[in-house]
Amino acid sequence: MAVPTFVDRVTLHVSAGRGGHGVASVHREKFKPLGGPDGGNGGPGGSVILRVDPSVTTLIDYHHSPKRSAQNGAGGGGSHRNGAHGSDLVLPVPDGTVVTDMQGNVLADMVGAGTEMVIAQGGRGGLGNAALASSKRKAPGFALLGEPGEEIEIGLELKVVADIGLVGYPSAGKSSLIAAISRARPKIANYPFTTLVPNLGVVRAGDTVFTVADVPGLIEGAADGRGLGHDFLRHIERCAAIVHVVDTASIEPGRNPVDDLAAMEHELARYGGLEDRPRLVALNKVDVPDGAEIAEMVIDEMREAGHLVFQISAASGQGTKELIFAMAEIVQRARAERPVAEAKRIVLRPQAVAGGGDFEVVRDNDGWRVRGEKPERWVRQTDFSNEEAVGYLADRLNRLGVEVELAKKGAVEGDAVMIGALDNSVVFDFKPSVEAGAEMLGRRGEDQRFLEDRPANQRRRDIQEAMEEKSEEETRADVARRLDREMRPGVGPMAYEIGSADDPDWAEDDPDA
Q1: pLDDT tens digit sequence for 99-150
Q2: Crossing angle for the helix pair 257-271 and 289-304, nearest 10 degrees?
Q3: Can you name the residues that pair with 247 across neighbouring β-strands?
Q4: Are 387 and 438 in contact (CB under 8 A)?
Q5: What is the DSSP annotation of 378-439?
Q6: More confident residue, 425 or 439
Q7: Residues 393 and 127 sit within 8 Å (Cβ to Cβ)
Q8: What is the pLDDT of residues 70-83, one digit of tens each?
Q9: Which value, to the nearest 10 degrees, does the dihedral of the CA atoms of residues 284, 288, 291, 297 take?
Q10: Which of 173, 209, 222, 348 is the most exposed, having the fewest neighbouring CB atoms within 10 Å of its CB?
Q11: Can you give the pLDDT at residue 144?
Q12: 97 is in an annotated binding site
């Protein structure tokens, strides 16, 4: 099996690095067993970046290794130590690479040395418990998880960036012409389709240096996919001018330079987008006697059609100097009209939903689905094995207004609420009017909302309601004792009846009883 040396189309699967997890840690030292939270944040994952490198001329590396991944971020540590950042993965691509998604939509056109594109963004690192501490939540017993990096499958298509494009029938002498005017040494032979890949040559004409590319094997019907021309016509889209290399010494029956030129122009017109390019015509092989005679016969007709025609011989070098300077003049004019291309950094960002807020709630067959960048990101950051972390997530969603919006849409207690990707959603049971729990006092790692029996909470509400009817002399403690006496007659604040056998200060044989 032949190993390709030139590849101009590949499908590439890239994965950015995952962010490191935050850590829940408590500062400890002698005589300070609980010195406060000191868990550090996780480091962000590395991004995948495409960068134009002039030394790269083919996509062959990605043909052999189509899957690339950036480095993950490191997890945080105690003593406020943050995790290390994951290294970015920079993928060099040739100048003129077009990046598309799998639907064929163009994401970027990579032109100009140093142009960069962040194709996959690294995941954010999770916050440690030190960063999550607040005036209400002084010692969080949880941390946030790092987010996964973006994954995307893209197509890379190379459109060679050349100043001059050579087109013509197979064996017209395009490769020989490039070898004659530059240091390029393409494979040359006298049979069709010798050139299987575009050849590039660097040409100097005085102070002007430009590149010339030949397009393999254009034949009649190339725009419909015949031959090799269909695959390589795109390589002349960026050329400033097109040079028709016409074989004047062809021995094929029915062939003549005028018809060959007309056939090539017809294929270029059918391909489209090249009508504004200047044309030059190079009548090649005039060193052959028959070729010189045929060139003299057709040159006037071609010039009357408006073409600038040169009689050349790629083998002997005849007429190539005049052709080179004519090409250089066109290149100079095109460069003067073209704006200077500056290296730029391209970052893909998802488009905001028109008129959308932070989230939206929709009803589907499985229940209620919450969509939005914030709630989906928060779900990815939550450690569902930690009840306090789940409570913190509920607090965030409640402050965002998710519960209110669900109730407004008609959700009732027990309905399924889904957050996250369609194929990997987190499902909750809707329970409205539940107080936020991550700030509530309780044992570390415990979310009070998971406990159905909470009499102390109800008692605080009763006391607060009774405070509105208290007398001026009563304090809150007096109101609490009065409620206790009304609810549990004969029972004191210690939950035993005074004078009973459970009273430690009372005994039947006590003479003072």
Answers
A1: 999 888 888 888 888 889 999 999 999 999 999 998 888 889 899 999 999 9
A2: 50
A3: 284
A4: no
A5: HHHH--TT-HHHHHHHHHHHHHHTHHHHHHHHT--TT-EEEES-TTS-EEEE---SPPP-TT
A6: 425
A7: no
A8: 999 999 999 899 99
A9: 110
A10: 209
A11: 95
A12: no
Whole-model pTM?
0.64
Q: If you compute the radius of gyration of the chain from its CA atoms, what whole number of angstroms results?
A: 39
441 pLDDT band, cuts 50/70/90, is very low
**Residue 426, pLDDT above cutoff 60:** yes
Who wins on pLDDT, 505 or 478?
Answer: 478
pLDDT band for 448, please (50, 70, 90 cuts): low
| 354 is annotated as contributing to ligand binding | no
Task: Please tell me whether 11 is known to bind a ligand.
Answer: no
Instruction: Find out whether 171 is annotated in a ligand binding site.
Output: yes
Does the annotation flag 15 for ligand binding? no
β-sheet bridge partners, residue 48: 89, 120
173 is in an annotated binding site: yes
Query: What span, in angstroms and rounded, lies between the C-alpha atoms of 43 and 20?
Result: 5
Nearest CA to 41 among 130, 123, 142? 130
Tell whether the model's pLDDT for residue 219 goes beyond 70. no
Q: What percentage of the chain has pLDDT greater than the value 90?
A: 22
**Residue 54 labelled as part of a binding site:** no
478 three-class SS: helix
End-to-end CA distance of the chain: 108
The answer to whether the annotation marks 221 as part of a ligand binding site is: no
- pLDDT attached to residue 438: 47
Looking at every residue in the chain, the average pLDDT score rounds to 80
Q: Is 432 annotated as a binding residue?
A: no
- Annotated ligand binding at 286? The verdict is yes
Check the annotation: does 325 bind a ligand.
no
Cα distances from 126 to residues 43, 141, 143, in angstroms, run 8, 14, 7
State yes or no: 470 annotated in a binding site: no
Residue 471 known to bind ligand: no
Residue 298, marked binder: no
454 Cβ partners below 8 Å, 6+ apart?
A: 448
Q: Which two tokens stand for residue 120?
A: 């996959």
184 is in an annotated binding site: no
Task: Say if residue 374 carries a ligand binding annotation.
Answer: no
- Is 127 flagged in the annotation as binding? no
State residue 422 phi and psi, 5-degree precision. Answer: -60, -40
Give, in degrees to the nearest 5, the angle at Cα 174 between 169 and 180: 160
**Residue 306 assigned ligand-binding role:** no
199 annotated binding-site participant: no
Residue 132 sits at the vertex; the CA angle it makes with 353 and 377, to the nearest 5 degrees, is 25
253 is in an annotated binding site: no
Paired sense of beta strands 67-69 and 367-371, if any: unpaired
Given this model, what pLDDT does residue 437 score? 47
Beta-carbon neighbour count of residue 239 at 10 Å? Answer: 27
The answer to whether the annotation marks 159 as part of a ligand binding site is no
